[in-house]
Amino acid sequence: MEDMGGASVQAHQALAADAQPPPGARGLIPDGRHLLDEDTFTENFRSDNRPPRTYLCYEVERPDRGSGVPLDQDKGILRNKSAPGPEVPCHAESRLLEQIQSWDLGPKLHYRVTCFLSWSPCTDCAQDMAQFLKESSHVSLSLFASRLYTRGHYDEGLRTLKRAGASMAIMTSREFEHCWTAFEHHKGNPFQPWPGLAMESGKFSEKLQRIPRLEQPGAGRPCWAGSVGASPEWFRAKAGRRWGLGGGGLGGLRSRGGGGFPKAKPLRRMEPWRHRPRDPMGWISPETFFFHFPSLRYAFGRNSCYLCFQVEREGKGHSSYDWGVFQNKVYFEAPYHAEFCFLSWFCDQDLSPDEHYHVTWFLSWSPCPTCAEEVVRFLREYRNVTLSIFTARLYYFWRPDFQDGLYRLWSAGVHLDVMSFEDYEYCWDTFVDHNGMRFRSRDLLRDNDFLATELESILRTTMNPLQQEIFFYQFGNQPRAPKPYHRRKTYLCYQLKPHDGSVTAKACLQNKKKRHAEIRFIDSIMALKLEKDRRFEITCYVTWSPCPTCAKELVAFARKHSHISLRLFASRLYFHWLQENKQGLKQLHASGIPVAVMSSLEFEDCWREFVDNQGKPFQPWNKLEQYSKNITRRLRKILKQPPQNDLENEFRNLHL
DNA sequence: ATTTTCAAT
Ligand SMILES: [Zn+2]
Question: Which UniProt keywords apply (predicted)?
Answer without folding.
Answer: Cytoplasm, Hydrolase, Metal-binding, Zinc
